[in-house]
Automatic annotation (TrEMBL), chain A:
PANTHER family, sorted: ACETOLACTATE SYNTHASE SMALL SUBUNIT (PTHR30239), ACETOLACTATE SYNTHASE SMALL SUBUNIT 1, CHLOROPLASTIC (PTHR30239:SF0)
UniProt xrefs under InterPro entries: Acetalactate_synth_ssu (IPR004789), ACT-like_dom_sf (IPR045865), ACT_dom (IPR002912), AHAS_ACT (IPR039557), AHAS_small-like_ACT (IPR054480)
Physiological role: Catalyzes the conversion of 2 pyruvate molecules into acetolactate in the first common step of the biosynthetic pathway of the branched-amino acids such as leucine, isoleucine, and valine.
Official protein name in the record: Acetolactate synthase small subunit
The keyword Cytoplasm is annotated on this UniProt entry: no
GO biological process, alphabetically ordered: isoleucine biosynthetic process; L-valine biosynthetic process
Region (Disordered): 1-41
Biased composition (Basic and acidic residues): 10-41
GO cellular component: cytosol
Pathway linked to the protein: Amino-acid biosynthesis; L-valine biosynthesis; L-valine from pyruvate: step 1/4; Amino-acid biosynthesis; L-isoleucine biosynthesis; L-isoleucine from 2-oxobutanoate: step 1/4
Name of a matching Pfam family: ACT_AHAS_ss
Entry keyword Transferase: yes
UniProtKB/TrEMBL annotation, chain B:
Residues annotated as domain Thiamine pyrophosphate enzyme N-terminal TPP-binding: 22-135
Listed name of the protein: Acetolactate synthase
Cofactor(s), by name: Mg(2+); thiamine diphosphate
Domain Thiamine pyrophosphate enzyme central: 210-345
GO molecular function, one term: magnesium ion binding
Length: 131, 583
């Protein structure tokens, strides 16, 4: 007890009524909480990058640091060879694919990041397998 | 006594020069074009051509004791000046010694440029003497890094590294300079710092979201502002004060946000988080709309995310889109410059929130959970008392640097910060040993009439105290107050709280006499053991025109409160040991 010092104790204080999910969203107390596993999903990200040494390391290093599992990688030069397209099938943990996209965009050699639907990824890898 | 044994040779027209500029010259000219006045570093084989180019430059080079010190000095220089601090190191161990400082700057988004020497390109990748894959090693701890392989573009690359370090969300950048590149002739034209093509930094936030956020803030019954380091980096403190005072919103800061709002203001609730004030934590925890400015919601701030400000709608303003909803979901994401977005919000506010009762509640919390400690003449000196006494003695614009640990928390809690860029500390990385080299960097960046005080712990001070030689050599007027409790005090406190008092490797059976050590370095040394000695000794140390070290023997059993255990609920901070036991 903290009566002798006069500070209300940790359990004697007014408490906020709400709660957040582990990913920091407020839980609406009137609704059933959403299934958190539902948005842990695979995603296909296709990047256009400057074709320079170390660019793949920069991207895969970012994925490793941020605990993004890479399921598949396909890379190929574009046009005159100053750019490349690298496509990844990834499984990002919370806070999810949007966070991964934003982090990717911060890498200097990354020119653009786009999310494809999963079928597009199948086609892409199929074409690589055939060739 | 004379501190400088040899006067630096003034470059003259007769100095040996080179006919054509080299890659190294291009690097230095790029720094000059960026307005760089100081650089911190150490010589070494692969960086020698760059130092040779510095010989002819007006940039004042400060030779540090260790590359880690150079990085921290540059980091602090960047914090105090707002412009990137520059550090130099050679290849191999020189570069790896920078890594802690780079990581520190990266975590705290401090602007900094590192130039490292590298083995000649022919040797790269062949395990040459003092070769390290510097860009590989520093990739995760820099905003971006480069290897310059063409002397014609070296200047451009260094200029770009400088521009990027400061633009948008600041951070450390590094340019690795192979020795053959810096020695070779350079045909590159001198250029100023230029951002790469297509590098786009948001300024104003989306107008529609601004309007919605302003409405939420105006409708709030319990609004609060959480002001982070981004408010200082973005120089938005005037806009913050205008917004907070016009709309009557209490202001809590993060640790890096210290100084963004004057702590003696009626609306100031000071710092929140693990060792923040009870009233700051109560304010954040109970608010219904939080305007979070330039903060990345570090876990030392939020405690457990599930219990962090659980009733609050979050308006998150950040220049880095990747911070939005990374830790705490943003109900109103506003990507942009802190000052610009604050102006947008200010203009968009339909009315002031009706928050009179709430403000009164916040004031009551301030009364209910004051920062306090007990001091008794017959006990060892309390560290908090020394922080307060030093604050009393020094002007309001004094720059405070710290190491990491208990002393850092007391320096944060018991000093009243009133101005931006006066708090210089290691937040995200928590780098012990940061304080002294940071004081050196801060001294060069601060105004001549500004004082620089470093609070350090005995453990922290021991990690980088070789930099005292630099302070003496450069005749720097800094006052170091070592709150000496003969322990790694924060670890000792955690052992007592969470490891049943097993004080493994946290107490020092013997520590050096820091006052005697200081004299050995050529600085002035002082010692405090009793309350009676405090005022006079601190004054003498402060008034000494040069580096002074006060070895202040403090109560080794004193702990830092308030405290929220790691991952805990910020409403349930412990005000003392008894309350900690209730958790």
């Amino acid at each position: 007890m903290s009566g002798e010092t006069g500070y209300p104790g940790p359990h004697e204080r007014a408490q906020p009524s709400g709660r957040r999910n582990p990913d920091g969203t407020r839980i609406d107390m009137d609704e059933t909480p959403p299934d958190r596993d539902a948005d842990e999903r695979r995603a296909v990200l296709t990047t256009v990058v400057k074709n320079e040494p170390g660019v793949t390391a920069k991207i895969t290093g970012l994925f490793a640091r941020r605990q993004v599992n890479i399921e598949r990688i396909v890379g190929e030069p574009m046009g005159d060879g100053t750019r490349s397209r690298i496509t990844f099938v990834v499984e990002p943990p919370h806070p999810g694919v949007d966070q991964v996209k934003r982090q990717l965009k911060k890498l200097l050699p990354v020119i653009s990041v786009e999310e494809l639907d999963l079928e597009a990824a199948e086609e892409l890898t199929a074409s690589v397998n055939e060739s | 006594m004379s501190k400088r044994t040899t006067a630096p040779e003034e470059p003259t027209d007769e100095s040996p020069g080179r006919s054509a500029p080299t890659g190294a010259d291009a690097a230095i000219v790029a720094l000059e074009a960026a307005g760089v006045e100081h650089a911190f570093g150490l010589q070494g084989g692969a960086i020698m051509p760059v130092y040779d180019a510095l010989y002819h430059s007006d940039i004042q080079h400060v030779t540090m004791g260790h590359e880690q010190g150079a990085a921290h000095a540059a980091d602090a220089y960047g914090i105090v000046s707002g412009d990137p601090g520059v550090c130099l190191a050679t290849s191999g161990p020189g570069a790896t010694n920078l890594v802690t400082g780079l990581a520190d700057a990266d975590m705290d988004s401090d602007p900094m440029v590192a130039l490292t020497g590298q083995v000649a390109t022919d040797f790269l990748g062949r395990d040459a003497f003092q070769e390290t894959d510097t860009t590989g090693v520093t990739m995760p701890v820099t905003k971006t890094n480069y290897v310059s392989t063409d002397p014609d573009t070296t200047g451009h690359t260094v200029g770009e590294a400088f521009a990027l370090a400061r633009e948008g969300r600041p951070g450390p950048t590094l340019v690795d300079l192979p020795k053959d590149v810096t020695k070779a002739d350079s045909a590159g034209e001198p250029v100023g710092p230029e951002l790469p093509d297509g590098f786009d930094v948001p300024d104003a936030a989306d107008g529609e979201t601004v309007a919605e956020a302003a409405e939420a803030l105006a409708d709030a019954e319990r609004p609060a502002i959480l002001s982070g380091g981004g408010v200082i980096k973005g120089e938005a403190w005037e806009e913050l004060r205008a917004f907070a005072t016009e709309y009557g919103v209490p202001v809590v800061t993060t640790m890096p946000g210290i100084g963004s709002f004057p702590e003696d203001h009626d609306l100031a609730m000071e710092v929140a988080g693990m060792h923040g004030t009870g009233y700051a934590n109560m304010t954040l925890q109970h608010c219904d709309v939080m305007l979070a400015l330039g903060t990345r919601f570090d876990d030392r701030l939020t405690g457990g995310v599930e219990t962090f400000a659980p009733d609050a709608e979050i308006v998150h303003v950040d220049i880095d889109p990747a911070e939005i909803s990374k830790i705490v979901h943003a109900d109103y994401p506003l990507v942009g410059d802190a000052g610009t977005v604050l102006d947008q919000l200010h203009d968009a506010m339909p009315a002031a929130p009706e928050a009179g009762e709430w403000r009164q509640q916040c004031r009551e919390w301030r009364e209910e959970y004051p920062l306090e400690y007990s001091a008794s003449e017959d006990e060892p000196v309390k560290p908090q008392f020394l922080v307060e006494a030093m604050d009393e003695l020094t002007p309001d614009d004094t720059v405070v640097t710290t190491g990491v640990g208990q002393h850092q928390m007391w320096a944060m809690q018991y000093w009243t910060y009133r101005h931006p860029r006066t708090w210089v500390s290691s937040h995200g990385l928590g780098t012990m040993g940061y304080g002294l080299p940071a004081a050196i960097g801060a001294r060069f960046a601060a105004d001549d009439d500004q004082s620089v005080v470093c609070f350090d712990g005995d453990g922290s001070f021991l990690m980088t105290l070789q930099e005292l030689s630099v302070a003496v050599r450069e005749e720097l007027d800094i006052t170091v107050v070592v709150l000496n409790n003969a322990a790694v005090g924060m670890v000792r406190q955690w052992q007592d709280a969470f490891f049943e008092g097993r004080r493994m490797a946290s107490e020092y059976p013997w520590v050096p006499g820091f006052d005697v050590l200081a004299e050995g370095f050529g600085a002035r040394g002082f010692r405090i053991e009793t309350y009676e000695e405090v005022d006079e000794t601190l004054r003498a140390a402060y008034e000494y025109d040069g580096p002074a070290v006060v070895d202040a023997h403090v109560d080794p059993e004193e702990d830092v409160y308030p405290m929220v255990p790691s991952g805990g609920d910020n409403t349930k901070f412990a005000m003392n040991e008894a309350q900690l036991e209730e958790l």
